[in-house]
Every structure is written in structure tokens, then in C-alpha cells.
Specification:
Length: 253
């Protein structure tokens, strides 16, 4: 179903039915992203007796900054890979799976998988966020006047997810256990993926297939792979800093 095919589809508040697929997928992805962001500093700086990691504020702030920046930095190579190799629909699924895996990885009691889980979520966000938004545009023809209002409706879903996450996950994290909150974020991300797969047929051909790749594209892919290796090296190098961080550091309120 291309933009031409959906020209007369007004089944979702006057917009193509496929918009609802992307609406709920992105809503739960933003729920996971902003829920994790709301808890990260609190979890990292809380003492072990409070079910936290006991890291110093300086180390926790550095990790938080790296995670949030990587979530946006990876959007560029991930969007390019979706365009040239994967197709945007496949990238949405891949990104959601990486995000959910990262969420569940944060539940592990060991500090070892912590940074790796954050890296997975950052990469997954790069894939899902860029591709989901791109497919929204593909649903509309070039002269379809509904495009702008379609993006507005799409961002309503983003704001719903971003607004609910700190309230629900924050309550679970601070009154029950931070790890349960991370797991709950993963469950909602899985729910978003299941919803996407069940209703994916409404997207038709929008973002299904990638553009044809060239030799230059494959060369850039090799450079991107090298960049990912560097990111993994940073994760490995930062692990000793986490393990050596004092557990009696000042904690965020």
C-alpha cells in the first residue's frame, strides 16, 4: 500500500489505517525511552541497600550523557542502513527488539551487562525512531494535504508515551524495584512490536523495501561497522570505572 493506495483511506481519524500502526509502535518506544531516562540517574546513584548501583554522581552523569547522546548519534547510520540495506519496516522490528533486549538486560543484577544494555537501547532507538517517522511520510502521496496533520497526530502518540512513562515506571522503580521498572518498559516495547507485526499489513509497501545499494554504500557500511567497534571499545573501557566507583557517594534525591 503506497501513498497512492492510501489516498482514499480515512479510517484512522481521517488518515490511513497504517498511521495507527506507527502511532502505537512509536508511543511504546517513547514510553520505554523516557521511562528509562527518568530512572537512570536515580538507579545508578542509589545505594545497594536501596536496590541501586551506588555509583558516584559524576560517573552516573557521564554514563547518562553518553547514553542519551548515542541514541541520537546512532540515528544517522541506522537511518542510512534502513534506506540502503534493510528497509524501514524491518528496521522498526530490529530496533524494537534491540530496545527490549536492552531493557531486560538492565534487570540483571551484575554490573557487567549494564553498559552493553544501554548501548543496545541506543542503537535500537536509532533504528526504530528514524524508520518509524520515515514510514509515516511514505503513507501519503506527494500532494496529500493530510501529511502535516498526520505527523501532528503521530506526535500525539509520542507525547502520550513520554508523559505516561515517568509516572508509571517512576512509581514502580522507586516504590518496588528499579529492575522491575526496566522489565516493565521492555514488556511494553514487546507489546508495541507485537502490535506492529499484527497490523503491519496496513502499511503495504510503505518502507518495505530498501533503495538499491551501491559500492560506495557498502564502503560506508564498513566505516560504520568500525565506528560501532569503537563504541563497544568505549563500553569495555568504562566498565572498570563503574566497578571502582564508590558506593557511598552522594545520591540524587
Amino acid at each position: 500500500m503506497s501513498g497512492t493506495d492510501t489516498a482514499f483511506d480515512h479510517s484512522f481519524f481521517g488518515h490511513p489505517r497504517g498511521l495507527s500502526t506507527l502511532f502505537f509502535t512509536e508511543m511504546w518506544e517513547r514510553f520505554s525511552y523516557y521511562g528509562i531516562r527518568a530512572l537512570l540517574i536515580l538507579y545508578m546513584t542509589a545505594a545497594a541497600s536501596q536496590r541501586g548501583m551506588g555509583l558516584s554522581v559524576a560517573i552516573a552523569g557521564a554514563i547518562y550523557g553518553l547514553y542519551t547522546s548515542c541514541a541520537y548519534i546512532f540515528a544517522l547510520p541506522a537511518g542510512w542502513m534502513a534506506d540502503r540495506f534493510l528497509g524501514h519496516q524491518r528496521s522498526v522490528i530490529l530496533g524494537g527488539m534491540l530496545i527490549a533486549a536492552g531493557n531486560f538486560g538492565l534487570m540483571l543484577p551484575s554490573q557487567g551487562p549494564f553498559l552493553a544494555s544501554l548501548l543496545l537501547m541506543a542503537i535500537g532507538t536509532g533504528f526504530l525512531k528514524t524508520s518509524c517517522t520515515t514510514v509515516v511520510g511514505f503513507l501519503y502521496g506527494q500532494d496529500d494535504i493530510r501529511r502535516d496533520s498526520g505527523f501532528t497526530l503521530y506526535y500525539v502518540g509520542i507525547n502520550i508515551g513520554a508523559g505516561l512513562a515517568p509516572l508509571l515506571l517512576g512509581y514502580v522503580g522507586q516504590t518496588i524495584d528499579y529492575r522491575y521498572a526496566f522489565g516493565l518498559a521492555g514488556l511494553f516495547m514487546v507489546a508495541g512490536l507485537v502490535q506492529f507485526q499484527i497490523t503491519r499489513r496496513y502499511l503495504g509497501e510503505a518502507g518495505r523495501e530498501p533503495a538499491k545499494s551501491t559500492a560506495k554504500d557498502r564502503q560506508i557500511l564498513g566505516i560504520g561497522s568500525g565506528s560501532l567497534a569503537v563504541a563497544l571499545a568505549v563500553v569495555i573501557l568504562m566498565r572498570p570505572a563503574i566497578e571502582e566507583s564508590p558506593t557511598d557517594s552522594v545520591r540524587c534525591c
